[in-house]
């Protein structure tokens, strides 16, 4: 009897354990099913809300697509702001004073003027400084207020380091208004190379809208220059000046002798190019000169050389009468 009682008790214990395990498994199943159902309902709700907000209605967009949409909207806002600032800049002749995030930024220079001068021309340089270029604080004021950077451009003496070179260095230490091209020898036959290296140097140093070549015997009206150039801000490849097409002189005893006269055909006439006293090119063209400085050909005269560099390019030649300098001119430039 004792063994039978013990057997009954063990059987009851096994039944109780099985019932408890079955009940636990049942409750666990209900719990898991409830959680899955809740999560599925939450997911359906979120997708429907995303459809309602985005207006897609078919399928939810990915995170990457959402970021692209946001970036596109921000770019549109930035573009609209830049267009408004560009419109204002064209009215002033300068670029915007502020960046799109509202922080202060330097005004982009309107034009860098390279005034070609020679070793013995100090009197002419002093006349230019007194007439329109200024010195010291007045020179800096023109840069900040008008966006015009003016520098004398000069090479070195054939005997480098001689008294003439030292004189230029001493003058520059006082005025700080020179671009000294060490690779150029001051001589008439180096004039084209001098202008080419000036454009290259200026484009590398200053991010200006325009770059101008001028002689040291003219007066420049910077207000008229600024308003004239502002009208061409929308053209990235403009070559502006008093356009001409003169005779090619083939005799060595003639003043404007061209050693390569035979390249200009039987009629011996130059292609259209800007008169040499003053002309202007845009930033893109100055960069072109800088990049290709080693392969751009130099003719006897700098204005012909500059014109030749742009003949085969998609460049807008602007015949601007205000650059036709003369002693009685009241436009951009006049003799001094």
TrEMBL record:
GO terms for cellular component: Golgi membrane. The lineage of its organism: Eukaryota, Viridiplantae, Streptophyta, Embryophyta, Tracheophyta. It comes from Raphanus sativus (Radish). InterPro entries: DUF4094, Glyco_trans_31. Belongs to the glycosyltransferase 31 family. This is Hexosyltransferase. Pathway: Protein modification; protein glycosylation. Its cofactor is Mn(2+). It is an enzyme of class 2 (transferase). Residues 17-92 form the DUF4094 domain.
């Amino acid at each position: 009897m004792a063994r039978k009682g013990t057997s009954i008790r063990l059987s009851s214990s096994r039944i109780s354990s099985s019932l408890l395990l079955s009940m636990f498994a049942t409750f666990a199943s209900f719990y898991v099913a409830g959680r899955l159902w809740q999560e599925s309902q939450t997911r359906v709700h979120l997708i429907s809300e995303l459809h309602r907000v985005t207006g897609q209605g078919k399928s939810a967009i990915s995170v990457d697509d959402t970021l692209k949409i946001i970036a596109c909207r921000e770019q549109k806002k930035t573009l609209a702001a830049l267009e408004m600032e560009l419109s204002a800049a064209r009215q002033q002749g300068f670029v915007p004073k502020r960046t799109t995030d509202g922080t202060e930024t330097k005004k982009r220079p309107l034009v860098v003027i390279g005034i070609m001068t020679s070793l013995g021309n100090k009197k002419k340089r002093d006349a230019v400084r007194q007439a329109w270029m200024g010195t010291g604080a007045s020179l800096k004021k023109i840069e900040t207020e008008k966006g015009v950077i003016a520098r004398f451009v000069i090479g070195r003496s054939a005997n480098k380091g001689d008294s003439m070179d030292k004189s230029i260095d001493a003058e520059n230490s006082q005025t700080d208004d020179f671009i000294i091209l060490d690779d150029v020898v001051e001589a008439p036959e180096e004039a084209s190379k001098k202008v080419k290296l000036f454009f290259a140097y200026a484009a590398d140093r200053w991010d200006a809208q325009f770059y101008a070549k001028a002689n040291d015997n003219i007066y420049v009206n910077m207000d008229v220059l600024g308003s004239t150039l502002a009208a061409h801000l929308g053209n990235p490849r403009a070559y502006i000046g008093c356009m001409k097409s003169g005779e090619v002189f083939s005799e060595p005893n003639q003043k404007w002798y061209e050693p390569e006269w035979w390249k200009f055909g039987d009629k011996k006439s130059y292609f259209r190019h800007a008169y040499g006293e003053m002309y202007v090119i845009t930033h893109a063209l100055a960069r072109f000169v800088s990049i290709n400085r080693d392969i751009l050909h130099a003719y006897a005269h700098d204005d012909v050389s500059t014109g030749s560099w742009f003949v085969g390019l998609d460049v807008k030649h602007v015949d601007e009468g205000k650059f036709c300098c003369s002693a009685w001119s009241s436009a951009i430039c006049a003799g001094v």
